[in-house]
Write the structure tokens for this entry.
Amino acid sequence: MTEELFREDAYLRSCEACVTAVNDRGGIVLDRTVFYATGGGQPGDSGWLRLDDGREIAVATTVYDADRTTIVHVPAEGAELPQAGQSLEAEIDWARRYAHMRVHTGLHLLCALLPYPVTGGQIGEGQGRLDFDIPEAGLDKAALSEALNRLIQRKAPVAARWISEAELDAQPELVRTMAVKPPRGSGQVRLIEIDSIDLQPCGGTHVRDTSEIGAAEVTKIEKKGAQNRRVRITLVD
């Protein structure tokens, strides 16, 4: 099991860690990490692993192993691999991660504006999208953009808290996503709460308050089926 430091503080950019294993595909496993692993539509972090002997290993992406508790740092092609037991500093590409955090939080606001089941989503660097199960069309890009920016400008605090799986079972309305359900088995589920705006299970990384998102725009609304509407947002800056 990898200690997931990003769960408690998404603003940590680096940490000291120890290599616990290098798997048969060349993936590097650490005892603890600040690297977010691909999941929930958010890409895995990239960055660097700096060994005590001065070598630097570029990390192309980060994923979960099959057990869903071990995080694997995937090195760039041709990188020299470390040995188990070596100490290092793990540092994320902060500019890329922060862009993901801003977009991810913006998509939560979009969820609050469109109270429909979510059938899919994807987060990119500066842009993202959500798919909604909407029985009828009629969404307006300009009106949605205006409403989204009003929420952003409220500077609403964003915080994580945990509830038991039993508490989640008693509040099924908290789960907005149809395709991806919150991970179970640990006894607890992580909630992301945007004060007075949105509350739902989420394992991703987010900014501390909505003003950090910056200006955003709904750039496209696509019909992806009889009831499916894809809504794309882009950070204006």
Notes: Residues 107 and 221 are 14 Å apart (CA to CA).
